[in-house]
Amino acid sequence: MRIPGNEIVYRSLKVDDVNEGLIIRTSYNGEKLELYVETDSIGSLKNVLDDYFKNYEMSLKILEIVKER
């Protein structure tokens, strides 16, 4: 999955705690954030995506606030 972003957002979304059986990789490739998730459970996938996009949206809002100042 690729979504718009920048290096600051990418660094804020890096995954630092992954359970066994769950693979999550993030990368940044020229204005696109890349997310790779591998899991055996639909529930785990839903949780990962929910958390990722909540944090993604919050990162964008924070950057907007910082730019306004």
Chart the SSEs and their pairings.
Layout: E1 2-4, H1 7-13, E2 23-28, E3 32-38, H2 42-68
Antiparallel strand pairs: 1-3, 2-3
Question: What keyword list fits this structure?
Answer:
69 residues; three-stranded antiparallel β-sheet; 3 strands; 23% strand; elongated
Report on the architecture of this protein.
This protein has 69 residues and is α+β, with helices and mostly antiparallel strands. The chain has one domain (2-68). It has 2 helices and 3 strands, in the order E-H-E-E-H. It has a 3-stranded antiparallel sheet with strand order 1-3-2, with helices on one face. Strand 2 (23-28) and strand 3 (32-38) form a beta hairpin. It is elongated and about 45 Å long. It starts with a strand and ends with a helix.
Summed up, the helix count is: 2
Provide the gyration radius in Å.
13 Å
- The domain count comes to 1
Q: How many beta-strand elements?
A: 3
Query: Going across the major beta sheet, what is the strand order?
Result: 1-3-2
Report the span from N to C terminus.
32 Å
Describe the sheet with the most strands: 3 strands, antiparallel
* Residues in helices, as a percent range: 40-55%
H and E order: EHEEH
Class of secondary structure makeup: alpha+beta
